[in-house]
Amino acid sequence: MEKRVRFRSRWLPYALVAPQIAVTLAFFIWPAAQALWQSTLVQDAFGTSVQFVGADNFIELFGDPLYLRAFQVTGAFSLAVAVVGLALALLLAVMADRVVRGATAYKTLLIWPYAVAPAIAGVLWLFMFNPTVGVVAWWLRHLAGYEWDHLLRGDQAMALVVVAAVWKQISYNFLFFLAGLQSIPKSLIEAAAIDGAGPVRRLFTIVLPLLTPTLFFLLVVNVVYAFFDTFAIIDASTQGGPSKATETLVFKVFQDGFRGLDLGGSAAQSVVLMAIVIALTVIQFRYVERRVQY
Amino acid sequence: MMAASGGEGKKSVVKPVHEVMAMGGQKFDPTVYVPAVSSYYTDARGRMLSLPFNSSTTVFYFNKEAFQKAGLDPDKPPLTWNEVATAAAKLKASGAACAYTTGWQSWVHLENTSAWHNQPFATKGNGFDGLDATLTFNGPFQVRHIGMLADWHKKGWFTYGGRKNEPEAKFFNGECMMLTSSSAAYGHIARNAKFPFAVSALPYHADVKGAPQNTIIGGASLWVMAGKKPEDYKGIARFFTFLSQPELQAEWHQQTGYLPITQAASDLTRKQGFYDKNPGTDVSVRQMTARAPTANSKGIRLGSFVQIRTVIDEELEAVWADKKTPRQALDDAVARGNDLLRKFEKANR
Questions:
Q1: What is the CATH number of the domain that holds B335?
Q2: What's the predicted TM-score (pTM) here?
Q3: Do B138 and B229 have their domain in common?
Q4: Beta-carbon neighbour count of residue B201 at 10 Å?
């Protein structure tokens, strides 16, 4: 049977997709083209002196060991955010799925952090961990004897931004995991239970395999989130410090472009980021979506 | 920003203040402005480019109560870094959690400390004489000064509290007993500190010849954009004349701790008895005006300086975290900063 929809009028389909195309052109294609063009220029802050330099900005970028370090920092940060975020959310979802009484209240509370703006999340965690006035820093010092000073300790600063980023994203992951869990047919689980499989065995042999589509989807979403949406958290809490320990690629674009007014160099970094998004999207559609059974 | 005013014949983004004042027909005498402030915003031919607005400099604050408790004379502020070290040791011995901290580490400990000891921060008169300046703040003097702080950090005398003004909170909440930061922190500290404190001059190294010279300013100035209608410039000129009035400037200076931009405002403040009632508030003015500025203490005018300060912050953090020696960190900061300067030079040719 023919599934395709046929329009009688020739212009109607174009008119229907026009708004979407206009939005894409104005907000995606145009700025992307602008970034591509700017990445080949060197200009002053006011645009009064502009020179075409070809690939100079890129050559300089990849010759800069600090840029390569930002790659490593971003990699470590994204991996930590994705792994910790997914593991915790899965745990919470499995628990929430089993709760019988007060389930709605429990679920609602877990969704709250998602409503908090990233900058607020950054400031919130910064306050708690502030070495001078932070309550968590105080607990660590007085109850655990652990010196918390993320202003100088790069590893602690990284832990701080990972915690804030995970906390912010956990609701989103939780929702998808919960929906995934609830769509697993009860009959399968009951059958396994009758066969004598305990809750842990059922989790690993039935629930998790059936959850892989959700898991892979969330993995890509979380990596993209850690790459691109955590700027506000880092800006509000560590500003990329100490000594660049938390300077991710996105933060560096901002730092060089808007603080340092090096527009060409910053545009070149944006182009590299664009390439990374494209690669991630291809991976998602090509491999992840295919290999995962729905 | 300075590049915005352009060279001769180059298209300019801003209109220099001296031109604006002439267009507006306002009486304008650049010599009424405090030279240590206005020289920062003046071109090589002595013409004022922008109107100084919120200018401050670096001063030293200390907790008088803690000094008393540690057996130090609260009416005798430490004037040299050696005296600060002695005070730090005694404060620690008396049970203080933190003896000394500083706001704005690059501005206080490299930019101002260099000027205060008449040492160059960069070549070409700290950048005033051309875009081809290179950084020189990795000289033996600066390496020694940062080395001293690194040593204090190891001993627990100096506590690092952040890149900007965050450390001021450590001072007024009573955690740190001594602080170097902006004179404009005065109002903030006076409002929050629950103990008597005093302000004194930025300490210096007594064995360095020519010290103390004068300190330099930080803050902002008012720039006029080019390409407006002539009547707009008339209005701007009148507004600038209004802002420069001694009464207005004196009030601004007294309430904020920022420097008075004209000598008349400073004199008026003295006549009103403000300095007698609030001892130490004239420290910043005296520090700026005690000596005629040299090429090393006139100010700093470098491209991408915001980025260079971030570089300095990053490298100094590596020193405090004991990951780099003071020499290595300052060498790296100079090398990275020079890259930024060359890039800026290229973009602003």
A1: 3.40.190.10
A2: 0.85
A3: no
A4: 20
